[in-house]
Amino acid sequence: MYAEERQQEILRAARDAGRVDVVTLAERFGVTTETIRRDLTALERAGVLRRVHGGAIPVERLGFEPALAARDEVMTAEKERIAKAALAELPQDGAVVVDAGSTTSRLVQALPPDRELTVVVNSPPLATMLATRPNLTVLMLGGRVRGRTLATVEDWAIQQLSQLNVDVAFMATNGCSVAKGLTTPDPAEAAIKRAMIACADRAVLLADHTKFSGTYLARFATLGEIDVVITDTGLDPEQAAALAAAGPEVVRA
């Protein structure tokens, strides 16, 4: 078993049981406790587990949400592939809204220089990244800025979105499942995400495979409200098929 496969099994076990311990995992997988500790460290860096004495617990149990900078450092190759695949969903011209997130930021960086677009964002870092692009009209949603995700939230942003009509919403999520839909830890951020999807003709989710085994506090969409899910090849084909059966096209980049 490859390390990534073992780590996904560890994550699944933690979410099922609420906790995993090092010794039991080492016996289960026939590896040393040092190997398991390295696995747990990798999963903690990915923001999906939190190390505790003797083992680890899933972050959902803590209500924990990794900061944007921490999320930006994991699954980097997968996020680059997802962003590149998402370029196929851009309109030739028109307007898009881009949700705050580490994968969506890579889409922003990859936007083609020859495309005339209006880009609506709720992230000051994304607005700064786009502001000097002469072919783009950049609209920044106002509101309270959440320090953890650097996303603008609450009524100012929601009111602005209610007046907009865009071609595509490029969305991020903390968790996604067939049963629970798309979820995020913060209700204020969920409300903004919900408003983004509502103002768009099409919704495209950008999410690496680690996002498809957890559920968080606030749901902002069902899979039936998403037109395309773009993820990476780390997502199990059977899980991809189950997602597709719920409505969206699934692309494994």
Account of the protein in words:
The protein is an alpha/beta fold and 253 residues long. The protein is 40% helix and 26% strand. The chain has eleven helices and 15 strands. It has helices at 3-17, 22-29, 33-45, 59-62, 68-71, 76-86, 102-110, 124-130, 155-162, 187-198, 237-245; strands at 20-21, 49-52, 55-58, 93-98, 116-121, 136-140, 144-146, 151-153, 166-171, 175-177, 181-184, 200-206, 218-221, 228-231, 249-252. It has a seven-stranded parallel sheet with strand order 6-5-4-9-12-14-15, with helices on both faces. It has a three-stranded antiparallel sheet with strand order 1-3-2. It has a three-stranded antiparallel sheet with strand order 10-11-13. Strand 10 and strand 11 form a beta hairpin. Helix 6 crosses helix 7. The longest helix has 15 residues, at 3-17. The chain is elongated, with a radius of gyration of 18 Å. The model has no long low-confidence stretch (mean pLDDT 91).
Question: What portion of residues is helical?
Answer: 25-40%
Distance between the termini: 22 Å
Mean pLDDT: 91
Overall SS class: alpha/beta
Number of strands: 15
How are the strands of the largest sheet arranged?
A: 6-5-4-9-12-14-15
Q: How much beta, percentage-wise?
A: 25-35%
Number of helices: 11
